[in-house]
Amino acid sequence: MKKVLAILVVAGFLASCSSGPDKAQLAADSARIADSTAKAQAAAAMDSAKAAMDTAKAAMDTAKKK
């Protein structure tokens, strides 16, 4: 049990002494995530617009037949 406690203490000490995250890498990741989110939102909007156009076209075709 003493060995496990000693290992946990050493691991905790080493983890607390780290220099922290790389701020440049975090900024790059944030920009990449924001870009991919914007692309996904644009794709979803385009899919919605296409569905609306298909519905409108079907309604127009039905109106022409009457």
**Helix content range of the residues, please?**
over 70%
Oligomer: single chain
Distance between the termini: 86 Å
Order of helices and strands: HH
Low-confidence region ranges: none
Can you summarize this structure?
With 66 residues, the chain is mainly α. The chain is built from two helices and no strands.
Protein described:
The chain has a domain of 45 residues. The N and C termini lie far apart (86 Å). It has 2 helices and no strands. With 66 residues, the protein is an all-alpha fold.
How would the blueprint of this fold be written?
Elements: H1 2-16, H2 23-65
What descriptors fit this protein?
66 residues, mainly alpha, rod-shaped
